[in-house]
Amino acid sequence: RETVEKPPYAVDITGTSAFSRGSLFWTIDHTEPVGGESPSGFLRFRLEDESFSVTPPPPCCEGLVYEMSYLSELHGELSVAHPGPNCESIEIWTCNDVDTNPPEWTLCYIFNNYCPQPAEGLDIAMYHLCKDMFILQVLKDIVGLDRLIYHPHDSVIPYIPSLVPV
Q1: Using N-to-C axis directions, what is the helix angle for 122-129 and 133-143, rounded to 10°?
Q2: pLDDT per residue over 27-73, tens digit each?
Q3: Which superkingdom does the taxonomy of this entry point to (predicted)?
Q4: Strand residue runs (E) in the chain
Q5: What is the CA radius of gyration of the chain?
Q6: Could you read off the pLDDT of 74-104 as tens digits, one per residue?
């Protein structure tokens, strides 16, 4: 069925989306603004009242490069992974309360000495980051790489959390 209102902004269909705390989040498409300039941040759709709003991005930098940022849900919180200053690290920011205005973003992890690689998602970026055994051991408890198996990205169906309990 259709929602009560239409999305106020176009979303980046090549970017990631996330489900966290009763809301769906998408990256706003800044290349094709609808009705003027698009705001910075992420488009939020609350399932409870079917309303749209904009969630501001983390306070990490003035110009967040949305094409290189990845939305996700991490331990029940909305999270954004993006390149740090000069693309020499990966920063992971989390927001445990998206309902506050403005939301409170917390810098949770910084992975230094990151060598940028073309990636289809955070999982491949993490793979390249974790090639070194020392880093792999440190990250094992943080990101759960115990039974991680990689498959070619074009031969698997991406996991999308279901909103319907099974």
Answers
A1: 140
A2: 887 776 666 677 778 888 888 888 888 888 888 755 666 667 788 88
A3: Eukaryota
A4: 17-20, 23-27, 42-46, 51-55, 70-74, 77-83, 89-95, 105-112
A5: 17
A6: 888 888 888 777 677 788 888 887 777 778 8
**Measured distance CA(74)–CA(155) in Å, rounded:** 25
**Residues 30, 54: Cα–Cα separation, whole Å:** 13
User: Alpha-carbon torsion 5, 30, 18, 21, what sign?
Assistant: negative
pLDDT at 150 over 70: no
The sign one gets for the Cα dihedral 32, 56, 6, 22 is positive
* Cα dihedral 115, 43, 63, 77 sign: negative
- Residues 103, 57: Cα–Cα separation, whole Å: 9
Tokens of 57: 């991005």
How many CA atoms within 13 Å lie on the side-chain side of 118? 1
- For residue range 113-143, what is the model confidence (pLDDT) as tens digits? 655 555 455 555 555 554 444 444 555 555 5
